[in-house]
């Protein structure tokens, strides 16, 4: 049973609160209490919960996309995952509702009334109620913001009349009134899509995003890297603005990967026998949604040496024990050339020596020479960041040579590299969208604009 | 004609809107931020006048301000004072958004101003009869949100009326309203709500069933018999429910199956005559190879949930895994690929927020059968960004998955975590896992001890130090005689290394004190070494030296007693070397700064002085429990609270994973006739007659017809139902105007039959044919026998009526 919801900034100042009864505490009261109960709760953890009483718990989830913290106060649940999943759903709903990639504090403050309305619909009798975004959009019509208004100024009055008259389209006009005659729910085909939508410009975008999580271990004797962890975490985000009730077929080129059982949006109706992962057919919900979330497992394939071919465009290697006294190291980066990408962005390599004996030693990290970018020392003596140019063109081989002065061989061997970068146009797994087609349900004369985007990012990419 | 007029009005309407928008642009309130700024400037008095304004736009501005004040918890404005101004808008405002904002306000403040809130009830009740279903649903929600005792009978009355509403969202709201009533006054309303719930569970609309399940789960979790008639249907429609209700339903059905469905029977594959029921979770299976025979209903349930593994909701996945874990054989998790999905969820840091909880489930499943998750071992290796909870549970699982094949890999990983990780809980857990590894073989145990001893020389935090020492102690305690070498090395470390922290030294000295009982010979020398250095040592070390001296003295005494049992010679402390050393340590301790050390020294001194050796040995040589909680999962345990507590699970998780036992066959009736499908209440036919033709205007998409064909499927083929659905189809042909001009809505229900006759007399044959044509298009993909039957039926009727 949910009692209240809060959104705060990372510094725990209130941005939004929604109390479900008069007794629910305001955030100020809650925060004092939380600090008493769990004083050490820090922001480092993605989520945490604290017991406030026999039956009362507070859950806190750090937003993945924005600088916000989502909180809720609940009575003890039989299924402990529920509050967590709800907060996650809540955040996604907000993102999709406002059609944003990240929520700013200003956005939340400006839309406090709207968020309150959304929550009022999402929670009834202190339990989760309506969570379908299309229904929420219907119940709490969104006001388009300025940019969209400007874009649609071309729409003339007559055009508006045309499209309004037969269908009572929602979400198109600047303000949409809800007259009693509009009961689109009644002819709704599938629960996740509002029926008979009309758009003047039909668009459909597919974003495939992959996050690279790799932990490599370098065997210093043989000089070979072997994969400790290797996971590509991928998601297919879909954004559609389509007229009618179209059936979309998305065919993927999986590049030989077995995706196992990915998480699919409910529109895929994955419980039916005929769905295949590489040829999905579905009626898309309107607007933004996440179609699929998959992982490519490169750990079991590691034996065949296949894993490291899917590591993305950047390969890193290092050598230690160089120089006359053996306290030098060299980091070599190989940015593979690619036909699809001209450059990779924001390549940063964090150099860190983590031998425990270094804490009290007199070692000093120094850079002798580097071919690209610049090196930034940090307060911690054994850590530094090699920041390469913002756009590194593919096919280059940056090298950095440095030394850890006065280090013992044991200490220099504890070199640990963390790599972060992003690039567009190519995925590390090689998965591609071969085609997106609209099979049926759209008027013939409409040719929607289709776009596909590939983004690769790093998550945990470590070489040790 | 009517059409064109409506077109013109709508054109005017949009024109008006545009001008309004233009006005808004002019007043530079276009952007959200500037609107917010404007909104911030509204003074308390201004707010009151805005709320009482006749201009809808001003009221909206006022309500928005109220909403943002509620959301921002502004201490300067007491919103309660505006109660009357806000609530009166419920009647005056026509905009549903304003009404919703009032609902948000009422939800929070109604309790505080019961008398004023009651004033609003009248207008809320009025909107219960609104033609718009959303308004009706909202009105019901609002009414039930007002927590005033005298209002409950009215709520109950409205609920009873609304339960047969044609719109599913209203019926869903009924479920939630019932839940609110139940929570407020359980005793007086439980009897009223129970039959309502029964009806709601029988609803044909998945959305209503979803809400009804919330009510069932919250209010009547013990009344699982309500699910009898719906069991099979629910298994079918499970994917159509909302994600939350999916999880609730699976959890409810687990309990249901345990109570009302026959327990699976295992038959020995090698000997067909041997068979037994499936043992409770985590009890050993009786046969190595077996065949399982599962009740068809249970099978249906398990099959339908395994198809749901694609769900994006991790709570659903956990419920599925729990169902398979409890209701089927241990191999089911693997065979159904549920293990793969769980492994996917925890495999990368960003995938699920609640990895800690999922990992706890996996940990429990591992206790039943480690082989299920051993292929995924690498998934449990840590990422540097894992948070503490995740890391700790991953390490626990690693400890559970250790086997001869993977032990080398695990040990090297664990060592890495121990050296690198900065969080003491993680280090502690990794050390524990390492201790579990150490139990596997003698050589490994020695290797690990040695590695840990080397590690002790690094500067460690006190807590890490303690963990190191306790693991070393655990490994040495396991097999003390093997670790003589390690002890000697430790002694050397103590003597040669000067940079050891006081804590570390204390830990090692303590270890020697314990070691004295197994191998006495190395200990006295250590005491000798520390005797001259006593005053230079740190406080913790001094305390341990005192204790150590007492320990070996007591040990020596026991040894001498054993040796001298036959002879008469009595051991004399004053004479023995050790005794003298101990006395001098006690003497030195008398002048210590720390009163604890002085106190202990005095205690031990007087113990030995007065020759209370038995007490001394009781005190000093008591066997210490192993410092590491080790769990070997090689032998399955019963899943009881003890085991769960030992695994260190979260309290909530413990409760969630504690499972109900199977009920006994002879106590509860488990026959499958219980689950004979009972009637489904289909309100869609009501809706088709209620709504008008415009709702189906030329809508040729396959889904609306799919909906219809589904209805046809769920309907039992009693004659009157066929009749009504045929009737419903005829109504589609009418235009809105025709319909309303003919019949007042209220009469419709009673005079249904009469109307049909009238209607079909009036309507010409061709229009009805038209309807069938459109139907044919629609139902072409689902060629349902029943539907064609209906059509022919109604054809006949048509004929009859025409003849008449």
TrEMBL record, chain A:
<dbReference type="InterPro" id="IPR001392">
    <property type="entry name" value="Clathrin_mu"/>
</dbReference>
<feature type="domain" description="MHD">
    <location>
        <begin position="201"/>
        <end position="464"/>
    </location>
</feature>
<dbReference type="GO" id="GO:0030131">
    <property type="term" value="C:clathrin adaptor complex"/>
</dbReference>
<dbReference type="InterPro" id="IPR036168">
    <property type="entry name" value="AP2_Mu_C_sf"/>
</dbReference>
<keyword id="KW-0653">Protein transport</keyword>
<dbReference type="InterPro" id="IPR028565">
    <property type="entry name" value="MHD"/>
</dbReference>
<dbReference type="GO" id="GO:0030659">
    <property type="term" value="C:cytoplasmic vesicle membrane"/>
</dbReference>
<dbReference type="InterPro" id="IPR011012">
    <property type="entry name" value="Longin-like_dom_sf"/>
</dbReference>
<dbReference type="GO" id="GO:0006623">
    <property type="term" value="P:protein targeting to vacuole"/>
</dbReference>
<protein>
    <submittedName>
        <fullName>LADA_0G11606g1_1</fullName>
    </submittedName>
</protein>
<dbReference type="Pfam" id="PF00928">
    <property type="entry name" value="Adap_comp_sub"/>
</dbReference>
<dbReference type="InterPro" id="IPR018240">
    <property type="entry name" value="Clathrin_mu_CS"/>
</dbReference>
<comment type="similarity">
    <text>Belongs to the adaptor complexes medium subunit family.</text>
</comment>
<keyword id="KW-0472">Membrane</keyword>
<keyword id="KW-0813">Transport</keyword>
<dbReference type="GO" id="GO:0006896">
    <property type="term" value="P:Golgi to vacuole transport"/>
</dbReference>
<dbReference type="GO" id="GO:0030123">
    <property type="term" value="C:AP-3 adaptor complex"/>
</dbReference>
<keyword id="KW-0968">Cytoplasmic vesicle</keyword>
<dbReference type="InterPro" id="IPR050431">
    <property type="entry name" value="Adaptor_comp_med_subunit"/>
</dbReference>
TrEMBL record, chain B:
<comment type="similarity">
    <text>Belongs to the adaptor complexes large subunit family.</text>
</comment>
<dbReference type="InterPro" id="IPR016024">
    <property type="entry name" value="ARM-type_fold"/>
</dbReference>
<feature type="region of interest" description="Disordered">
    <location>
        <begin position="742"/>
        <end position="804"/>
    </location>
</feature>
<dbReference type="InterPro" id="IPR011989">
    <property type="entry name" value="ARM-like"/>
</dbReference>
<dbReference type="Pfam" id="PF01602">
    <property type="entry name" value="Adaptin_N"/>
</dbReference>
<dbReference type="GO" id="GO:0006896">
    <property type="term" value="P:Golgi to vacuole transport"/>
</dbReference>
<feature type="compositionally biased region" description="Basic and acidic residues">
    <location>
        <begin position="697"/>
        <end position="711"/>
    </location>
</feature>
<feature type="compositionally biased region" description="Acidic residues">
    <location>
        <begin position="772"/>
        <end position="798"/>
    </location>
</feature>
<feature type="domain" description="Clathrin/coatomer adaptor adaptin-like N-terminal">
    <location>
        <begin position="44"/>
        <end position="610"/>
    </location>
</feature>
<keyword id="KW-0813">Transport</keyword>
<protein>
    <submittedName>
        <fullName>LADA_0B01860g1_1</fullName>
    </submittedName>
</protein>
<keyword id="KW-0653">Protein transport</keyword>
<dbReference type="InterPro" id="IPR026739">
    <property type="entry name" value="AP_beta"/>
</dbReference>
<dbReference type="GO" id="GO:0030123">
    <property type="term" value="C:AP-3 adaptor complex"/>
</dbReference>
<feature type="compositionally biased region" description="Polar residues">
    <location>
        <begin position="712"/>
        <end position="726"/>
    </location>
</feature>
<dbReference type="InterPro" id="IPR002553">
    <property type="entry name" value="Clathrin/coatomer_adapt-like_N"/>
</dbReference>
<dbReference type="GO" id="GO:0006623">
    <property type="term" value="P:protein targeting to vacuole"/>
</dbReference>
<feature type="region of interest" description="Disordered">
    <location>
        <begin position="697"/>
        <end position="726"/>
    </location>
</feature>
<keyword id="KW-0472">Membrane</keyword>
<dbReference type="GO" id="GO:0012505">
    <property type="term" value="C:endomembrane system"/>
</dbReference>
């Amino acid at each position: 049973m949910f009692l209240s919801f809060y959104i705060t900034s990372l510094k725990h100042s209130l941005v939004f609160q929604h109390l479900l009864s008069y007794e629910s505490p305001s955030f100020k009261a809650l925060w004092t209490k939380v600090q008493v109960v769990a004083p050490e709760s820090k922001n480092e953890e993605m989520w945490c919960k604290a017991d406030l009483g026999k039956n009362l718990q507070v859950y806190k989830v750090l937003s993945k996309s924005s600088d916000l913290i989502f909180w809720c106060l609940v009575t003890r649940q039989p299924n402990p995952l529920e509050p967590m999943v709800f907060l996650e759903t809540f955040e996604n709903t907000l993102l999709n509702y406002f059609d944003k990639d990240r929520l700013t504090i200003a956005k939340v403050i400006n839309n406090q009334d709207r968020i309150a309305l959304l929550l009022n619909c999402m929670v009834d009798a202190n339990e989760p109620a309506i969570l379908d975004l299309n229904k929420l959009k219907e119940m709490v019509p969104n006001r388009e913001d300025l940019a969209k208004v400007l874009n649609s100024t071309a729409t003339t009055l007559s055009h508006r009349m045309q499209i309004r008259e037969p269908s009572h389209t929602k979400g198109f006009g600047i303000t949409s009134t809800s007259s009693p005659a509009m009961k689109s729910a009644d002819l709704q085909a599938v629960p996740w899509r509002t029926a008979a939508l009309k758009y003047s410009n039909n668009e459909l975008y597919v974003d495939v995003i992959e996050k690279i999580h790799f932990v490599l271990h370098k065997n210093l004797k043989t000089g070979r890297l072997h994969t400790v962890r290797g996971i590509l975490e991928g998601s297919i985000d879909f954004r559609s603005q389509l007229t009618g009730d179209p059936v979309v077929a998305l065919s993927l080129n999986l590049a030989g990967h077995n995706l196992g059982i990915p998480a699919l949006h409910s529109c895929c109706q994955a419980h039916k026998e005929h769905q295949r992962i590489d040829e999905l057919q579905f009626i898309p919900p309107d607007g933004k949604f996440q179609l699929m979330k998959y992982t490519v497992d490169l750990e079991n394939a590691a034996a065949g040496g296949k894993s490291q071919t899917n590591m993305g465009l950047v390969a890193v290697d290092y050598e230690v024990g160089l120089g006359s006294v053996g306290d030098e190291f060299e980091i070599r980066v190989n940015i593979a050339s690619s036909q699809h990408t001209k450059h990779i962005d924001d390549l940063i390599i964090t150099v860190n020596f983590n031998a425990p004996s270094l804490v009290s030693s007199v070692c000093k990290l120094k850079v002798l020479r580097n071919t690209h970018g610049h090196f930034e020392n940090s307060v911690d003596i054994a850590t530094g960041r090699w920041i390469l140019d913002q756009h590194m063109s593919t096919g280059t081989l940056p090298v950095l040579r440095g030394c850890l002065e006065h280090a013992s061989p044991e200490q220099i061997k504890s070199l640990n590299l963390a790599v972060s970068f992003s690039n567009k146009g190519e995925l590390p797994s090689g998965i591609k969208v071969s085609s997106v087609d609209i099979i049926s349900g759209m008027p013939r004369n409409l040719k929607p604009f289709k776009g596909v985007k590939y983004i690769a990012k790093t998550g945990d990419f470590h070489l040790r | 004609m009517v059409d064109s007029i409506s077109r013109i009005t709508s054109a005017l309407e949009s024109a008006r809107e545009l001008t309004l928008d233009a006005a808004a642009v002019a007043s530079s309130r276009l952007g959200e931020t500037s609107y917010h700024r404007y909104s911030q400037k509204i003074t308390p008095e201004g707010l009151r006048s805005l709320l009482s304004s006749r201009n809808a736009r001003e009221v909206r501005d006022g309500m928005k301000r109220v909403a943002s004040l509620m959301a921002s918890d502004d201490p300067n404005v007491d919103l309660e004072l505006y109660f009357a101004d806000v609530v009166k808008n419920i009647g005056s405002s026509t905009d549903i958004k304003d009404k919703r904002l009032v609902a948000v306000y009422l939800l929070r403040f109604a309790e505080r101003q019961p008398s004023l809130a009651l004033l609003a009830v009248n207008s809320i009740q009025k909107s219960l009869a609104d033609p718009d279903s959303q308004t009706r649903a909202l009105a019901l929600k609002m009414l039930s949100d007002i927590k005033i005792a005298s209002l409950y009978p009215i709520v109950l009355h409205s609920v009873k009326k609304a339960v047969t509403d044609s719109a599913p969202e209203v019926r869903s709201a009924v479920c939630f309203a019932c839940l609110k009533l139940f929570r407020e006054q359980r005793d007086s309303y439980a009897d009223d709500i129970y039959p309502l719930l029964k009806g709601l569970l029988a609803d044909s609309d998945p959305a209503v069933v979803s809400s009804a399940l919330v009510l069932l789960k919250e209010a009547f979790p013990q009344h699982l018999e309500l699910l009898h008639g719906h069991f099979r249907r629910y298994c079918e429609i499970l994917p159509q429910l909302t994600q939350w209700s999916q999880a609730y339903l699976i959890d409810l059905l687990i309990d249901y199956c345990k109570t009302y469905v026959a327990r699976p029977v295992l038959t020995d594959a090698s000997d067909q005559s041997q068979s037994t029921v499936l043992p409770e979770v985590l009890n050993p299976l009786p046969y190595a190879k077996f065949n399982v025979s599962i009740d068809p209903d249970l099978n249906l349930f398990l099959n339908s949930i395994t198809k749901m593994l694609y769900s994006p909701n991790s709570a659903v996945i956990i419920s599925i895994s729990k169902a398979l874990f409890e209701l089927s054989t241990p191999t089911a998790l693997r065979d159904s690929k549920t293990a793969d999905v769980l492994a996917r969820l925890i495999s990368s840091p960003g995938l699920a927020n609640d990895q800690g909880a999922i990992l706890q489930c996996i940990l429990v499943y591992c206790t039943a059968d480690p082989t299920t998750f051993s292929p995924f071992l690498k998934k449990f290796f840590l990422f540097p960004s894992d948070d503490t909870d995740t890391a700790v549970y991953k390490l626990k699982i690693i400890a559970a998955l250790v086997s001869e094949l993977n032990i080398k890999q695990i040990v090297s990983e664990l060592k890495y975590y121990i050296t690198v990780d900065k969080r003491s809980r993680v280090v502690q857990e990794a050390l524990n896992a390492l201790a579990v590894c150490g139990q596997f073989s003698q050589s490994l145990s020695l290797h690990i001890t040695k590695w840990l001893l080397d590690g002790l020389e690094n500067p460690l935090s006190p807590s890490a130090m303690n963990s190191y020492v306790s693991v070393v102690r655990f490994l040495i305690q396991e097999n003390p005689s093997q670790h003589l070498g390690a002890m000697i090395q430790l002694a050397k470390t103590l003597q040669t290394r000067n940079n050891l922290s006081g804590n570390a030294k204390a830990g090692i000295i303590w270890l020697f004190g314990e070691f004295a009982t197994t191998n006495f010979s190395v200990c006295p020398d250590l005491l000798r070494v520390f005797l001259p250095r006593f005053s230079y040592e740190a406080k913790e070390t001094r305390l341990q030296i005192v204790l150590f001296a007492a320990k070996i003295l007591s040990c020596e005494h026991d040894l001498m007693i054993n040796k001298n049992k036959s002879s008469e010679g009595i051991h004399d402390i004053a004479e023995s070397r050790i005794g003298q050393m101990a006395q001098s340590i006690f003497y030195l301790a008398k002048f210590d700064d720390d009163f604890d050390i002085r106190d202990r020294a005095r205690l031990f001194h007087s113990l030995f002085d007065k020759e209370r050796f038995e007490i001394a040995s009781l005190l000093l040589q008591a066997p210490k429990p192993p410092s590491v909680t080790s769990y070997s999962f090689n032998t399955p345990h019963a899943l009881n609270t003890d085991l769960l507590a030992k695994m260190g699970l979260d309290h909530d998780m413990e409760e969630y994973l504690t499972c109900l036992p199977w009920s006994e066959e002879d106590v509860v009736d488990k026959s499958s006739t219980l689950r004979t499908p009972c009637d489904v209440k289909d309100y869609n036919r009501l809706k088709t007659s209620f709504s008008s033709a415009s709702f189906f205007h030329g809508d040729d998409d396959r889904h609306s017809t799919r909906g219809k064909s589904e209805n046809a499927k769920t309907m039992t083929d009693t004659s009157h139902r066929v009749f009504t659905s045929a009737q419903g189809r005829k109504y589609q042909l009418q235009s809105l105007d025709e319909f309303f001009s003919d019949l007042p809505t209220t009469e419709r229900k009673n005079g249904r039959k009469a109307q049909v006759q009238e209607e079909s007399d009036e309507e010409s044959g061709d229009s009805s044919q038209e309807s069938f044509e459109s139907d044919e298009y629609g139902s072409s993909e689902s060629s349902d026998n029943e539907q064609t039957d209906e059509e022919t039926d109604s054809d006949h009727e048509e004929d009859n009526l025409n003849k008449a």
